[in-house]
Amino acid sequence: MPERMCVSCGIRNERSAFIKISTRLEPQNTNNSTGRNAYVCRKIDCIQKLAGGKTRIGMSLKRTNIKKEDLIKLSNEILTKVINGQD
Ligand SMILES: [Zn+2]
Q: Collapsing DSSP states into helix, strand and coil, what is residue 40?
């Protein structure tokens, strides 16, 4: 089974331990996304770190031009999902 890595803390685990993020910076619930994906732990710390812009997300998605405001939006979106138990 392929292992995934959290873009914030670098821990490796199986898919179910992570929230999947698409290249369009949207959290993905299903496996129907194509292209590259990034993964982040379901931990508040790791999700909040996304907003700071110092994670490996750009490397994982092969994007160098991610805007800080988009990262903040993504971070908030994932936090809301995790807090509401939607993922
Ligand atoms: Zn993590």
A: strand
Output the six-digit token pair for 71.
């990262």
CA of 72 to the centre of ligand 1 (A): 17
pLDDT, tens digit (0-9, with 9 covering 90-100), for 50-82: 999 999 999 999 998 899 999 999 999 999 999
What's the token pair of residue 11? Answer: 């821990």
Domains of the chain by start residue, with CATH: 4-84 (3.30.1230.10)
As residues whose CB is below 5 A from the ion ligand 1, the structure lists 6, 8-9, 41, 46
User: pTM (2 decimals)?
Assistant: 0.89
| Rounded-to-integer distance, Cα 15 and Cα 3, Å | 7
